[in-house]
Design brief:
Number of strands: 17
Order of helices and strands: EEEHEEEHEEEHHEHEHEEHEHEHEHE
Shape: globular
Number of helices: 10
Length: 344
């Protein structure tokens, strides 16, 4: 390894270990753990030594082909905690610990970017989808799309915040949650178990509908006012609801729980379908259904500050890089509570 002047970090070895998706498929071993060429940062990028990478359900959608392939021989992973070891700038000195999330860059010129809606950019790039991500020992990222991590958040507990946490926080914004609201969370995986901590800090009453006894137990332990099955109706009318499961049935269950004027925010990049429903009974009364699309850098910065302030500690299960397939399987099968994190 070649040391970089002025730091005890080093450039990546040749080769480096990575978990690589060759073909989108649903098998027990979709990722191949093998050597890969070391990444080389472009002029607007930094090179990171990966400390940890969270496993997101979106990774499953990519690996199983539910999202169309964008890159051959892809290294997934978009919840990256890493140290800058090359491409340093005055803003980002060598050795700075940063986080990387799902949106890895925008064009900055499309109508949405000009309106300040960068999450809706017409030509975004995505970490671990359109370019290689963090299921590896090293990764590159655009220097204007990395985030300094507060010291209160250690590597393992910061990683799941970088997508599951940020997008959950954006879902609360999209739903229009205000302090003291009654809020329903439908599904209780990696994102929801972070979202409830923010809601509790805002003195909201939280009602959780989710499958799996262990998920219901976790929700109760984290302060939910009521916990029920996946499509069970909470005992009160909700002001806001967020759905996390990629199921249209869950959206209808959430909608049926709203008061007039309430909002359902769908926190899913992929949804199976929304079944036919009774408009007069479920949507009339100025109820709303809104989708949550990606996140903005403002979302990331605001959420990371809140997470540090409330000392947010996700429940984490750690996997080695060699166990990347097992980590994906655990997320797919709801075999763990909280979040899965890969440590190279």
């Amino acid at each position: 390894m070649v040391a970089i002047a002025g730091t005890d970090q080093a450039t990546p070895p040749k080769p480096l270990k990575a978990a690589i998706l060759r073909t989108a498929r649903d098998t027990k071993q979709p990722l191949q753990i093998e050597d890969a060429p070391p990444p080389r940062p472009a002029a607007d990028q930094v090179l990171l030594r990966v400390r940890a990478c969270g496993v997101c359900r979106t990774d499953l959608h990519i690996v199983e082909g539910e999202l169309p392939p964008r890159k051959q021989a892809l290294i997934p992973g978009h919840q990256i905690v890493g140290d800058i070891v090359d491409g340093a700038t005055a803003e980002w000195p060598l050795g700075t610990r940063v986080g990387v999330s799902w949106i890895g860059g925008i064009d900055g010129t499309c109508p949405y970017c000009r309106r300040g809606l960068e999450n809706l950019c017409d030509a975004p790039v995505f970490t671990g989808y359109t370019f290689n991500g963090g299921y590896a020992e090293y990764a590159v990222a655009r220097s204007d799309f990395v985030f300094k991590l507060p010291p209160e958040l250690d590597d393992l507990h910061a990683a799941p915040l970088l997508c599951a946490g940020i997008i959950g926080f954006r879902s609360l914004r999209v739903a229009g949650v205000e302090p003291g609201d009654r809020v329903g969370l439908f599904g209780f995986g990696a994102s929801a178990h972070l979202t409830i901590a923010v809601l509790r800090s805002w003195n909201c009453e939280v009602y959780v509908s989710t499958r799996g006894a262990s998920h219901r137990q976790l929700a109760a332990s984290l302060g939910a006012a009521w916990v029920g099955g996946e499509t069970d109706k909470p005992p009160v009318e909700l002001d806001r609801a967020v759905t996390f499961a990629p199921s249209g049935d869950v959206v209808i269950a959430a909608l049926s729980s709203l008061r007039k004027g309430g909002v359902v925010a769908i926190n899913a990049i992929h949804l199976d379908r929304i079944p036919e429903f009774d408009y007069d009974r479920l949507l009339w009364g100025e109820r709303q259904i809104r989708s949550v699309a990606n996140m903005t850098r403002s979302d990331a910065r605001n959420f990371l500050k809140i997470a540090a302030d409330i000392r947010l500690q996700p429940k984490v299960t750690v996997f080695s890089l060699d166990q990347a397939n097992e980590a994906l399987a655990a997320v797919k099968n709801d075999a763990i509570d909280g979040a899965a994190v890969i440590v190279p």
